[in-house]
């Protein structure tokens, strides 16, 4: 009976004191944020590895997209307040949003243009075109509904439900972080899977497809609750009125620029001929806050690089966290996890402690500290990058060649690089590191092993790596110079593996699910790509007899030549030769920079919104929200400008440049904040209300006097 009573009560317009409609809105927001952050988490890697763009172009397009997502909210607010209303705007732009996500998923299907089935798209331009169309639609959708959904949720409450409305916004913010956190964990896992019809590739269609499905669910859930919503009709946008007021003041001031017209206290007072004093006073308060916003975009220029530069940095690091490997794009989850933990800690512990120490930690001082911490986070990122750069292999330049030696025999060997360049001794079943030579000066190799000597004349193309395979046999010295065809470290934490058959019999080689085919004695395979952090089973079949061994952990971003020796029963004997060392700087070293940046976000972003709302009139909150979102958009545009203009070849230097720029801006903001005078908008508005009442009293008095005079 109690269960039935609960069920019936929830069918009413209110459930547990809340309008039932807000539950649909919260679920809608969770699904939409899952869709957006899930897609965005893998976006920069999609650009780099699927569309084959370099780091700079991938970063540029990523930040252009994010900037567009924060410019379009102004358009969404105008459409909602001046034309369609919030409900119709959310539905219309959600349809655009869903189509955009679906187009992104289709654009990432490799088999769409892979007609020759080589695993690479034959018409990259088509994939790029579809991707750009999809991203533009997503930017219009997510940006357009951003200012509408939270405000639409607030509209569902009655005037006497202030407590419930406040709690709703807390739940709403929690749903945003929950959607962000879960999607940033899941979509990188989906991306790391292999899928495809003709060839198996990273599964970007699934990584984009699941967010597209969640966006469709978000739209359906929102429409299902349609009959329960309180839908406020559009009443005009205050931003338009503010813009018109500012425009008229500038135009009127320009018209009366002659010295014969007396100056006015504030340039906005030139709008008093057309607009009432209250709107002018409110606009002054808003412009005062917007002026303080001018330095803020630099913070967002650093903050939003979590999804671009920092994710690309993670691709060159070791993601082995023991029981499970971490994908580079999953490191972004550190931010929402820390946000959920730190917001209550800072509010309940840190701020009260500062207050007890009698430090006047004003909102503007908090914002200044946030900017300083973000600058510090990029110094930490630069230090990590320096350590990464130390571990990266050096590849030959255009006029150089690199050679390493693998001795497959039981005798030691000596190789003389002629003419008299270098003399190298290699012990039995061992290998050297790569040695660099000027290609034009290297003419031949003199190889000595046991009692045998041979000379091999070589002519190398330059700019490449080679492996010299040697073995002293009963018939003389066997030697072969292999072309490695590797000019860069494997990306995305993958590993490159190849095999050499060091046995007299032909062998069929399989590693994991990849077949390398049949190798004749002393022949080598080409490199094949394997996911990093795995241990795979190596199986060899010789003369119909199989033997196997589990490979050692090959780390992330490595390249190995695995030499297949004889079998001992069913156990295969193999020797590993490291061609490219695995990533050795662990991804955990990124946690300090994420922690510092999250601290910066807590004291900057949360405080910034709180300060803005406290300094703005009640009917001007939307103007400041648009201004705040605009700072995020401009911040992402700054990334494009600075990264494009700096031309720095070292990534650590770019991190230091951004840190220095933000530190300089932080000092400028601190000076601006020092001269700022806090105001109480409610007090100012109350004065206008009093003046309005006085004017009304005077009007009533004169009307009564006039009426009395007319009756006499």
TrEMBL record:
At the top level, the lineage of the source is Eukaryota
Per its record, the protein catalyses:
carnosine(out) + H(+)(out) = carnosine(in) + H(+)(in); L-alanyl-L-lysine(out) + H(+)(out) = L-alanyl-L-lysine(in) + H(+)(in); L-alanyl-L-aspartate(out) + 2 H(+)(out) = L-alanyl-L-aspartate(in) + 2 H(+)(in); glycyl-L-leucine(out) + H(+)(out) = glycyl-L-leucine(in) + H(+)(in)
Q: Has keyword Membrane?
A: yes
Q: Which GO terms describe its biological process?
A: protein transport
Q: How does it sit in the membrane?
A: Multi-pass membrane protein
Q: Which chain regions cross the lipid bilayer?
A: 6-27, 34-51, 57-80, 87-104, 124-145, 166-186, 206-225, 285-303, 334-354, 366-386, 622-643, 655-676
**Which InterPro entries does the record match to this protein?**
MFS_trans_sf, Oligopep_transport, POT_fam, PTR2_symporter_CS
The UniProt keyword set, sorted, is: Cell membrane, Glycoprotein, Membrane, Peptide transport, Protein transport, Symport, Transmembrane, Transmembrane helix, Transport
Q: Which GO terms describe its cellular component?
A: apical plasma membrane
The protein's location, in the record's own words, is: Apical cell membrane; Membrane
Q: Name one GO molecular function term.
A: oligopeptide transmembrane transporter activity
Q: Which family does it belong to?
A: Belongs to the major facilitator superfamily. Proton-dependent oligopeptide transporter (POT/PTR) (TC 2.A.17) family.
Query: Which function does this protein serve?
Result: Electrogenic proton-coupled amino-acid transporter that transports oligopeptides of 2 to 4 amino acids with a preference for dipeptides. Transports neutral and monovalently charged peptides with a proton to peptide stoichiometry of 1:1 or 2:1. Primarily responsible for the absorption of dietary di- and tripeptides from the small intestinal lumen. Mediates transepithelial transport of muramyl and N-formylated bacterial dipeptides contributing to recognition of pathogenic bacteria by the mucosal immune system.
| Subunit structure, interactors included | Interacts (via extracellular domain region) with trypsin.
Recorded protein name is Solute carrier family 15 member 1
Q: Which species is listed as the source?
A: Ardeotis kori
């Amino acid at each position: 009976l109690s269960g039935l009573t609960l069920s019936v009560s929830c069918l009413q317009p209110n459930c547990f004191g809340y309008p039932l409609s807000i539950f649909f809105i919260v679920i809608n927001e969770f699904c939409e944020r899952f869709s957006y952050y899930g897609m965005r988490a893998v976006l920069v890697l999609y650009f780099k590895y699927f569309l084959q763009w370099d780091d700079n172009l991938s970063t540029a397009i990523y930040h252009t997209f994010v900037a567009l997502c924060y410019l379009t909210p102004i358009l969404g607010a105008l459409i909602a307040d001046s034309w369609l209303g919030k409900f119709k705007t959310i539905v219309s732009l959600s349809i655009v949003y869903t189509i955009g996500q679906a187009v992104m998923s289709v654009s990432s299907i490799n088999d769409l243009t892979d007609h020759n089935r080589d695993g690479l798209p034959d018409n990259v331009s088509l994939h790029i075109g579809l991707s750009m169309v999809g991203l533009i639609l997503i930017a219009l959708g997510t940006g357009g509904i951003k200012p509408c959904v939270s405000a639409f949720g607030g509209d569902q409450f009655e005037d006497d439900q202030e407590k419930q409305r406040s709690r709703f916004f807390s739940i709403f913010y929690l749903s945003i972080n929950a959607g962000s956190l879960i999607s940033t964990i899941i979509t990188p896992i989906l991306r790391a899977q292999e899928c495809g019809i003709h060839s198996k590739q990273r599964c970007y269609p699934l990584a984009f497809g699941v967010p597209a499905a969640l966006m469709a669910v978000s739209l359906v859930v929102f429409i299902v609750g349609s009959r329960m919503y309180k839908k406020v009709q559009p009443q005009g946008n205050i931003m338009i009125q503010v813009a018109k007021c500012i425009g008229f003041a500038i135009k009127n001031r320009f018209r009366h620029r002659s010295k014969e017209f007396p100056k006015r206290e504030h340039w906005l007072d030139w709008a008093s001929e057309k607009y009432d004093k209250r709107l002018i006073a409110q606009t002054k308060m808003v412009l005062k806050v917007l002026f303080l916003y001018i330095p803020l975009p630099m913070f967002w220029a650093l903050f939003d690089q979590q999804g671009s530069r920092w994710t690309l940095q993670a691709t060159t690091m070791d993601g082995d966290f023991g029981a499970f490997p971490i994908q580079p794009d999953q490191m972004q989850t550190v931010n929402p996890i820390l946000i959920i933990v730190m917001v209550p800690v800072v509010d309940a512990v840190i701020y009260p402690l500062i207050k007890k120490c009698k430090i006047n930690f004003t909102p503007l001082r908090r914002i200044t500290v946030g900017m300083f911490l973000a600058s510090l986070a990029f110094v930490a990122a630069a230090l990590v990058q320096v350590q990464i750069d130390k571990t990266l292999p050096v590849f030959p330049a255009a006029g150089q060649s690199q050679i390493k030696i693998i001795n497959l025999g039981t005798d030691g060997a000596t190789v003389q690089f002629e003419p008299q360049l270098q003399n190298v001794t290699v012990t039995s079943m061992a290998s050297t590191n790569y040695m660099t030579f000027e290609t034009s000066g290297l003419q031949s190799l003199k190889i000595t092993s046991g009692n045998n000597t041979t000379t091999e004349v070589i002519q190398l193309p330059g700019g490449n790596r080679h492996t010299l395979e040697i073995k002293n046999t009963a018939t003389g010295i066997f030697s072969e110079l292999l072309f490695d065809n590797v000019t860069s470290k494997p990306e995305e934490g993958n590993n490159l593996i190849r095999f050499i058959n060091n046995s007299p019999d032909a062998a069929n080689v399989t590693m994991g699910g990849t077949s390398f085919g049949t190798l004749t004695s002393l022949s080598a395979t080409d490199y094949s790509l394997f996911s990093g952090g795995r241990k795979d089973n190596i199986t060899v079949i010789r003369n119909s007899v199989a033997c196997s061994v589990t490979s050692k952990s090959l780390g992330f971003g490595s390249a190995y030549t695995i030499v297949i020796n004889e079998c001992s029963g069913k156990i295969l004997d193999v020797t590993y030769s490291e061609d490219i060392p695995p990533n050795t700087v662990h991804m955990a070293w990124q946690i300090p920079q994420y922690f510092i940046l999250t601290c910066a976000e807590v004291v900057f972003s949360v405080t910034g919104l709180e300060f803005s709302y406290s300094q703005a009139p009640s009917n001007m909150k939307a103007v400041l929200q648009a201004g705040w979102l605009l700072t995020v958009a401009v911040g992402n545009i700054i990334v494009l400008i600075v990264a494009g203009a700096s031309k720095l070849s070292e990534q650590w230097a770019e991190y230091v440049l951004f840190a220095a720029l933000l530190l300089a801006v932080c000092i400028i903001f601190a000076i601006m904040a020092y001269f700022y005078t806090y105001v109480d908008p409610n007090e100012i508005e109350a004065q206008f209300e009093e003046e309005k009442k006085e004017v009304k009293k005077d009007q009533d008095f004169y009307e009564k006097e006039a009426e009395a005079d007319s009756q006499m």
